[in-house]
Amino acid sequence: MNAHPVFCTIVPPHILEKLAAADDPAVSGPARRTLQADAGHRSRRLAATLVAPGATPGDTPQRTVYDAGHRTGLPGRKVRGEGDEAVKDATVNRAYAGLGATFALYLKAYGRHSIDGSGLPLDASVHYDQKYNNAFWDGRQMVFGDGDGEIFLDFTIPVDVIGHELTHGVTQYTANLDYSGQSGALNESVSDVFGSLIKQYALDQTADRADWLIGAGLLAPGVSGVALRSMKAPGTAYDDDVLGKDPQPATMRDYVTTDDDNGGVHLNSGIPNHAFYLLATALGGKAWERAGQVWYDTLTGGELPAAASFADFARLTVAAARARFGSGDEQEAVVKAWSTVGVPTGA
Hints:
Elements: E1 8-9, H1 13-20, H2 25-46, E2 63-67, E3 77-81, H3 90-110, E4 122-126, E5 135-137, E6 142-144, H4 159-173, H5 181-203, E7 213-214, E8 229-230, E9 239-240, E10 244-245, H6 261-264, H7 270-283, H8 291-300, H9 310-325, H10 329-340
Parallel strand pairs: 2-4, 4-6
Antiparallel strand pairs: 1-5, 2-3, 5-6, 7-8, 9-10
């Protein structure tokens, strides 16, 4: 399937804009440079059409990690290939492991061979640019910054960040959700959902033991916060003098209407995120087995429109739960989860 790739970053523009206005140049400088770089990437990606070669599907990922050498040329110098021994650079090894963890979840839980379902090689570049405060999927590969050391640490630290960004690729090859408004928020939310599931799968955690945080370990020690986002309690991930307060809503009552960030895609994603958390914890056990299966079936089922609203997605998750598990606990839990966050399912 050919798809139109969208430039997707883990740190949303509203956070970087807040940091760019900081008095401390050690904070504002890297944030401004990151915003400028992201704007350039975004315009180039929107003008491109993805035609990515796949590979022969197998049960082993085909990973290659490159070192960008603090420059912006991609992919950079190859530093670790599939099956190679670990290197001295911990950032390289974390990227390699994160690509593998993502591949493992999609293969073992859902029978999907890599991002495109056909064995797409997984490439990543680390040490991108100088103090670059982001990680992104550009339609072809993963790219990681080292962070500024003031607000953000190395972007390979949280495995869910890696899983989040690679899942934008899965969405690109399946529902290809438009990156604006509610469909854009769903695009972001799906990446948070599977990013969290990738971490839970790697740690063999049940839903009640998971932290349901996106980007735990990414914020520098001096920042008052625990992560970029919380699926359990949207709006509580951080509250910092420099970073500001987490603005994500948890329900439709607080839905944010804005023209910024493609219509608030990183803000309103908190609503479907919270619905998934409620579903997963209501069902219990390992969240990728039932809750995750319903979301995966919805994403890949071929019925989700590119411009899907929250209500469209919710309705299809109810249908997916019924098709997969019958009219029982799973379907009832899906309906209740969406109802709690104020999204109608038609059920």
